[in-house]
Amino acid sequence: KHETVDWAAHLGGLVAGFTVGLVIFSFTIRKLAWTALWCILGMALTILSFVLAMTYMYTEVEPPHELNDVCGYYAQYFDDYECHCQKGG
Fold first, then answer.
1. What does the alpha-carbon distance between residue 4 and residue 66 come to, in Å, rounded to a whole number?
2. Block means of pLDDT (10 residues each) for the chain, length 89 residues?
3. What is the pTM for the complete model shown?
4. What is the DSSP code (8-state) at residue 68?
5. pLDDT at 86
């Protein structure tokens, strides 16, 4: 199990797949009113879940302190890593 992949990523994929699936499914319905209803519902749920996820990520999630130095983080895992960012050397 990789430490940076947690249940939230899997749950997000499930929710995104479900809500986008509603939009795609809506185009197979023959009655225009039901097509519009399911398409709008799917789009609204997709947008809502994205907004909620981003709000949670930016207000509640604190990244590990070892990621403050991104170049150093990657250098510990890859022997031939060369940092090309403005901070790195």
1. 12
2. 68 92 93 95 95 91 80 86 70
3. 0.66
4. G
5. 67
Tokens of 67: 């990621």
Give the burial class of 35: count Cβ atoms within 10 A of its Cβ; 0-12 exposed, 13-18 middle, 19 or more buried: middle
**89, 83 in Cβ contact below 8 A?**
yes
**Cα–Cα distance for residue pair 66/73, rounded to 1 Å:** 7
Token representation of residue 4: 């940076």
Q: By the 8 A CB rule, do 85 and 70 touch? A: yes
- Tell me the torsion sign for CA atoms 59, 63, 67, 69: positive
Q: What is the pLDDT of residue 4?
A: 57
